[in-house]
Amino acid sequence: MADDDLIRRHQACFPPWIPTFYERPLVITGGDGRRLTDAEGHSYLDFYSGVATSILGYRVPEVWDAVAKQLRTGVVHISPYYIDETRVVLAEKIAELSGIPDAKVVFTLTGSEAVDLALSLAALHRRSNQVLALRHAFHGTSYGAMAVTGDRRWVGMGLAPFHVSHVRGGYDRYHGVYRELDDAAYTEACTRDLTEVIGVSTADRVAAMIFEPVQGVAGGAPLAAGLLRAYQPILRQEEILLISDEVQTGWGRTGRHLWGYQHHDVVPDLLVFGKGTGAGFPIGGVVGRAEVLESMSGIRMSATSGDPLSVVAASVTIDYVRSRDLPANADRVGSLLLEGLRREVLGSAIVADVRGQGLMIAIELADPATGDLASEVAVRVQETCRRNGLLVGLGGTEEQCVSLLPPLTLTEAEGREGLAAIVSAVRSVEHERVRSVEPDRPETGGAAPRPKAAP
After folding, report:
1. Which DSSP category does 33 fall into?
2. Rounded Cα distance, 254 and 251, in Å
3. What's the rounded Cα separation, in Å, for the pair 65 and 314?
4. Is 455 a residue whose pLDDT tops 50?
5. How many Å apart are CA 62 and CA 68, to the nearest integer?
6. Measured between alpha carbons, how far is residue 246 from residues 137, 252, 262, 284 in Å?
7. Which of 46, 250, 264, 357 has a Cα at 20 to 30 A from 52?
């Protein structure tokens, strides 16, 4: 095939820890709306949006026009030492929309860099390198972000600039003994755990707790209702700052609100944004209480962060999200998908769970013979979805989940189209797996044994 040589060249250039999806890697050549086109001319409905980055989809005229206008000025980089009105406008917009009183903003290139900055600000403000994070969390691939990540697949090393203690959070709610608890009982167990960790595993004062409102890489795991609200008095008593990592959940992905934290009746001290902020253009940042952001002494800035092209793209993206009420769309179309999946596949012999919030959904797959969470089953469903014209991602502690992160502009008709493709893929793989382990078993309707607890 025409793209075989490009695939070989790619594999020769990049290390294996930068993986590609699919048995035959996908070569993307174009996009429009919520669809991508590959080098062989196949069109796919995109339910992954570049790991939640292309939140408006592709070929968005408003973003193109704004970037083209900036290009015509002849300026694609303005040093942070100079004042740029577009940068000021975006910072004012994000500070106002953050929900944090007396907020200031710092721009970065990526969400990982923003996580590092937020942690550094909290450490300087509190004069402590002690940090609390949630088990199974993912916060990025830079040095500090890896330190607070609670998933060993993404840590990569034992060295870290922070002393991190992990507490119970989102993913635990769906596995092991905690799966049998209701939200109130789970929250009580987690609150006891937090108090014990602070008393036993930390030294002196703790700088901050960082959390994801929905643990995305862990497999679309929303935090239990009331958990953060129960944590807050304990954190306040210890003067521990609260950092909301909204790199993946921000700008309406969780539905109804711009930010995931707004589902939990708390207000963070610092909020981290990235990914979809620029609708594909690279920009991230930290917004938070001025008192905390002003803790940094000396000079700390990046020459290329907040570049004019990314800034104008981000400003237009935020206006687009708000003017079209995309958080409400994420809630509406996300509910269509979540309810449809629970109705159509939750009883499947290979489906252990369906969960999520807004347009951030995961289908957890299991081996029908043992009930063990099964990455190979998830990969098979992903491959089959591709054959059905749908692109989905992988997630979970062992990549045992199919992850759905469509653009926030997804229509109800496209939601139904994607739902049909997923249901067809699950039933096809269920047929293959059940027949391979138990030839006389019925093809559908047998729920998978309850999965064993994840590590």
Report:
1. B
2. 8
3. 13
4. no
5. 10
6. 12, 10, 11, 10
7. 264
